[in-house]
Write a sequence for this structure.
């Protein structure tokens, strides 16, 4: 009886160890890919080649970009954004959220920085989409 | 307070994780925002080249038909407040006396006096609402449409008495609570802004006719460019006797009526 209990415990332990190794490997490999400077080498759900501007620029200036878009679309009817590499985008919140399709993409950072933009008073928040 | 925020955050995060898992496994479609496609006019518009206008043939308009109103209000997430004081309307029906209050009714038949007339923003060429707006939120577009920029509206409501046609409604309450069947393709408004008909500028940019024109089963509404002498609307204006609302005020409405 006691031997059986022991072997069962061992089996659990081995299974757990194997599982944690797999998880650790997965996390480690993902982390490494995140750090490497070759985003194109990684197959990713979001095509970063299609962003309108580099990540660093957008992190700091997305509010100015969006405000500029709002102004030129509503007031001047200029609805096409031409990126520095010549690709064209519709000036729309849907363009951003079509790629950044994580529902918490805006919320996570805004809640961390404690900013409360008024976009979703009228526009449909990604968290409200069916 | 802190705790509540935390709870809310955890709730939302968990929801997001589940939604993400669902999307990854293909159970839930990833996202259902408006599809992004380049508009039909992708070059910058020339100001004053187009002047959109509408012609309403009131002879064809059926009294008990509400299809244009339903289509418009559905398309633009217009809330359905029952209370007359809070009512939001982009297009509605009214009697001859109310639509043409300054026209003499002597010589107007009983039938016409009992007819219902569609009223909407007239998108005047010389619009008093845009002239009075202190923030420039109500403005004249390059294509003759009088549009409200809801990003700029401060809710002062000067435009409401300035408009001689009563085309503007104010959001006294949060409109999101009273939208019957919300559509995801068009934003809502927020409490404290004025709203009105936008001549379906959101549909025009996709090359579609306004929702009311498309919904009318009698083809009583004709939409087109008033600056183009070969457009349908110009042809009909030339071949029919038409009326504008309160023309003596000099607002030059872009909406015409065949009586």
């Amino acid at each position: 009886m006691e031997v059986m209990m022991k072997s069962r415990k061992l089996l659990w332990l081995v299974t757990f160890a194997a599982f944690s190794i797999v998880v650790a490997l997965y996390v480690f490999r993902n982390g490494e890919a995140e750090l490497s400077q070759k985003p194109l080498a990684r197959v990713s759900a979001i095509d970063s080649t299609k962003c309108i501007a580099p990540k660093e620029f957008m992190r700091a200036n997305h509010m100015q970009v969006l405000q500029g878009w709002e102004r030129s679309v509503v007031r001047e009817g200029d609805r096409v954004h031409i990126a520095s590499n010549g690709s064209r985008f519709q000036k729309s919140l849907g363009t951003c959220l079509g790629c950044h399709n994580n529902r918490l993409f805006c919320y996570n950072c805004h809640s961390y920085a404690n900013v409360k933009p008024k976009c979703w008073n009228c526009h449909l928040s990604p968290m409200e989409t069916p | 307070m802190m705790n509540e925020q935390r709870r809310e955050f955890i709730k939302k995060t968990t929801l997001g994780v589940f939604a993400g898992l669902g999307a990854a496994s293909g159970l839930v479609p990833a996202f259902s925002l408006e599809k992004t496609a380049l508009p039909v006019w992708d070059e910058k518009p020339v100001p004053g080249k187009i002047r959109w206008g509408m012609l309403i043939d009131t002879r064809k308009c059926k009294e008990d038909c509400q299809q244009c109103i339903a289509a418009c209000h559905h398309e633009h997430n217009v809330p359905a407040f029952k209370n007359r004081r809070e009512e939001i309307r982009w297009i509605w029906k009214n009697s001859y006396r109310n639509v043409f209050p300054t026209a003499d009714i002597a010589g107007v038949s009983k039938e016409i006096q009992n007819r219902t007339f569609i009223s909407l923003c007239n998108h005047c060429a010389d619009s008093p609402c845009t002239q009075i707006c202190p923030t420039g939120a109500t403005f004249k577009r390059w294509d003759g449409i009088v549009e409200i920029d809801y990003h700029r509206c401060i809710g002062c409501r000067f435009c409401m008495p300035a408009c001689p046609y009563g085309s503007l409604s104010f959001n006294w309450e949060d409109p999101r609570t009273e939208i019957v069947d919300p559509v995801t393709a068009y934003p809502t408004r927020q409490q404290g802004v004025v709203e009105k008909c936008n001549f379906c500028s959101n549909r025009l940019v996709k090359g579609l006719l306004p929702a009311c024109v498309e919904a009318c089963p009698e083809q009583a509404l004709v939409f087109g460019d008033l600056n183009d002498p070969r457009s349908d609307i110009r042809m009909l204006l030339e071949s029919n006797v038409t009326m504008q609302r309160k023309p003596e005020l000099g607002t030059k409405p872009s909406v015409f009526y065949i009586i």
Q: What stands out?
A: Residues 52 and 83 of chain A are 5 Å apart (CA to CA). The helical segments of chain A are 2-35, 55-76, 93-99, 105-113, 119-122.
